[in-house]
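Subject: Sanity check before I submit

Could someone independently write out the C-alpha cells for this chain? I want to compare against mine line by line before I put it in a report. The sequence has 138 residues.
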Amino acid sequence: MRNTWILATVLLISLSAQTEEKFKIRITPVPLDGAMRATVAGSGSGSATLTGSKLNLNASFEGIPSPATNAKLHKGLATGVRGSAFQDLTITKATKGTVSGVVDLTPDQVESLRQGKLYIQISSEKSPEGTLWGWILK
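---
Independent answer below. Compare away.
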C-alpha cells in the first residue's frame, strides 16, 4: 500500500510539472511599401515561454516615430508572412515601452508557435497598419 501511495504521488507530481519551451522575439520595422519608410522605425526584443498551452510573453521596444496605439498577437501563413490578429496585448502607449501578455493558445496555435508562425505587431499613431513586427522563434 505504501509503495502504491509513493508511486501515485510521483506520477501526480510529474503530470503537474509541465515542461517550458522558451522562445525569443526580435522586433523590427517592416514597411509595407516605400511610402511607409518615414513612419516605420524602431527596434526591440523580448522572450516568450510556453507552458502547456499558456504563452507568457514580455518584450520592450524603442525608437518608433509616434506613440504606440496597440499591440496584437498574429498568426501568419508562414514565418515572415502576415496573418490575422487573434489576441490583444498590453502595451505602453509611447515611443518607447513594453509589450506583454498571457495567452491561452488552442492546439492549432501552439503548433503554429512551434512552426514560427506567430508574431507580435505593434501599431502606432502614424502607422496604424503596423510599425514593428516581432516573430516569436526558438
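---
OP: Matches mine. For the report I'm noting this point. The first helix runs from residue 2 to 16.
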